[in-house]
Amino acid sequence: MKSSDHQCIDALLRRAKRCGYYDTDLPLFEELCDNADEHLFDNVQMNCFHSLHSLLPPESSVTQNYTLHTCVHNHQLPDHISHLDDSNFITRMLFKNIY
Predict the structure, then answer these.
(1) What's 67's DSSP letter?
(2) Which of the pair, 72 or 42, is modelled with greater confidence?
(3) Residue 75 three-state SS
(4) Average of per-residue pLDDT across 53-79
(5) 67-87 as b/e, with b when 16 or more CB fall inside 10 Å?
(6) For labeling, which of 37, 82, 85, 98 is most exposed (least CB within 10 Å)?
(7) pLDDT by residue (tens digit) across 29-51?
(8) How large is the greatest C-alpha to C-alpha distance in the chain, in angstroms?
């Protein structure tokens, strides 16, 4: 989705808040998308019968004694082959909290 589409949806939600159709405590579009992505990724990780579970890389068997960043999964990170992989849902979620 293009950034202009995000801006249009955010503008719609802001107008809906002003008119009283959308609660002021509810998040804007980007946060809604992030929450939905995290929920889906959690379901994919926890349910071995999920249709996307087979796309996950194998779990990492290496235990590290240091923590340079917090990682929300225990999967091996795939090699960065091309920029097309950046838009892949699984790859995006694996690298999400690392940067």
Answers:
(1) -
(2) 42
(3) strand
(4) 65
(5) eeeeeebebeeeeeeeeeeee
(6) 82
(7) 888 899 999 999 899 988 999 99
(8) 54
